[in-house]
């Protein structure tokens, strides 16, 4: 308790120095159900001046689910938030919250797993799960795992398989693979778990219990996969306070606009560039369209870097962006697209390590989009309004890229090379020419 109070005082001091206008302090089951909870809350309020709101289990579940929705707008499945004192489960679909329950099976409440009492602990968790018959609706869907204890399980699995992306949010494991890993984890000693890279000693000591609870939830709900979320109750609290119109915005595209305004030479060129290159691809799948739009917005983000390192810089930054609305395959798509945009290829060691996370068709699309952006930004010199003087049209045998007579100066040897690279990637000819003027002359 002393450590928590010290950290809260530190936080309050820093927030005051930052002149933060509003601070919401929420206490969950660990405080709600503790015998000294009221004394702890009173001391927080005395030391910080903040008012502490002790929320109930239903509200805890609701805010956790909203946090996942804010991080994965298309979430469809069940959110599971394992805290120190309780597990919240809530059904989510179409950004709507459905059936939910809270159960007192947090690691701090039920204690550490020991061989002699493992079956008893499993029976305890199963008994509480019996009170959530709606969990059968999870079968074939996704379990979104929230909370530091379960994030530590994800870190341990990443270390075990030498996973190439060190980002927890969006890390995805199919049920069978995770179930096997949890069984292996149960056999490890506490010392062995503590040696896991990236897992703190505090989390290591509760990991076996967290793994047991997760294993029982997997067995009962039978989801196809588990997606780990770094977004939970805290982000849900923020999301809950946003105006309705902002809650329905795509978090990736909102972030892309913000980053583009900070890094691009000119205003974010999203619509102009997207409309210009779209004839090359026709209608994108919904999942890919938002990624292509983000690439268009960010297509000038590395202009200030040294030319020899623009591709590498853009790849590393965009594939590691701390933004919501992305799974790991999406991150690779964006990274490869940006690498192709700046380098004209994706031959980078860091890219080779992660490209297998993306299926071949989407990998090819990312590179093609990147090369189209490379052509468009070269043709316009970054002043993308000039692209309105050019046009891409689909032809039976390929594509025609025509330039208005008054914009013929945009053409040149470098542009022709970019056209050829794009043509090679599309495996269809792209023919560059000057569009006839009104009098028929070029």
TrEMBL record:
InterPro entries, per the entry: ATPase_NBD, GppA/Ppx_hydrolase, Ppx_C, Ppx_GppA_N
MF terms in GO: pyrophosphatase activity
TM spans (from-to): none
Domain Exopolyphosphatase C-terminal: 287-424
Residue ranges of every copy of the Ppx/GppA phosphatase N-terminal domain listed in the record: 4-244
Protein name in UniProt: Exopolyphosphatase / guanosine-5'-triphosphate,3'-diphosphate pyrophosphatase
Species, as recorded: Thalassobaculum litoreum DSM 18839
């Amino acid at each position: 308790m002393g450590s928590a109070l010290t950290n809260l005082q530190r936080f309050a001091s820093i927030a005051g120095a930052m002149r933060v206008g509003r601070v919401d302090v929420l206490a969950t089951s660990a405080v709600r159900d503790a015998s000294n909870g009221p004394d702890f809350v009173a001391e927080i309020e005395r030391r910080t001046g903040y008012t502490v709101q002790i929320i109930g289990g239903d509200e805890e579940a609701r805010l956790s689910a909203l946090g996942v929705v804010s991080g994965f707008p298309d979430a469809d499945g069940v959110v599971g938030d394992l805290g120190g004192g309780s597990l919240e489960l809530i059904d989510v679909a179409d950004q709507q919250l459905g059936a939910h329950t809270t159960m007192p099976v947090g690691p701090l409440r039920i204690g550490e797993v020991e061989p002699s009492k493992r079956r008893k602990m499993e029976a305890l968790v199963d008994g509480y799960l019996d009170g959530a018959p709606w969990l059968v609706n999870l079968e074939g869907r996704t379990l979104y795992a929230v909370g530091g204890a379960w994030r530590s399980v994800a870190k341990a699995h990443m270390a075990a398989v030498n996973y190439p992306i060190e980002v927890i949010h969006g890390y995805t494991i199919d049920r069978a693979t995770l179930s096997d890993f949890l069984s292996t984890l149960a056999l490890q000693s506490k010392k062995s778990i503590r040696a896991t890279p990236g897992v703190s000693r505090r989390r290591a000591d509760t990991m076996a219990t967290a793994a047991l609870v997760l294993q029982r939830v997997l067995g009962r709900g039978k989801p196809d996969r588990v997606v780990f979320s770094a977004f939970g109750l805290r982000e849900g609290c923020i999301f809950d306070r946003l105006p309705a119109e902002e809650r329905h915005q795509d978090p990736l595209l909102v972030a892309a606009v913000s980053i583009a305004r900070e890094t691009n030479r000119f205003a974010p060129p999203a619509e102009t560039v997207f409309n210009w290159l779209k004839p090359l691809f026709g209608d994108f799948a919904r999942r890919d369209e938002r990624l292509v739009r983000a690439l268009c917005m960010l297509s000038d983000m590395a202009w200030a870097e040294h030319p020899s390192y623009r591709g590498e810089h853009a790849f590393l930054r965009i594939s590691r962006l701390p933004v919501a609305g992305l799974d790991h395959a999406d991150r690779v798509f964006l990274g490869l697209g940006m690498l192709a945009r700046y380098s004209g290829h994706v031959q980078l060691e860091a890219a080779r390590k992660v490209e297998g996370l993306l299926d071949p068709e989407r990998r090819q699309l990312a590179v093609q989009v990147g090369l189209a952006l490379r052509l468009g930004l070269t043709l316009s010199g970054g002043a993308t309004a000039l692209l309105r003087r050019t046009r891409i049209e689909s032809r039976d045998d390929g594509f025609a890229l025509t330039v208005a007579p008054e914009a013929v100066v945009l053409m040149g040897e470098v542009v022709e090379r970019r056209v050829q690279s794009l043509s090679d990637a599309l495996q269809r000819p792209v023919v560059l020419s000057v569009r006839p003027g009104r009098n028929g002359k070029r």
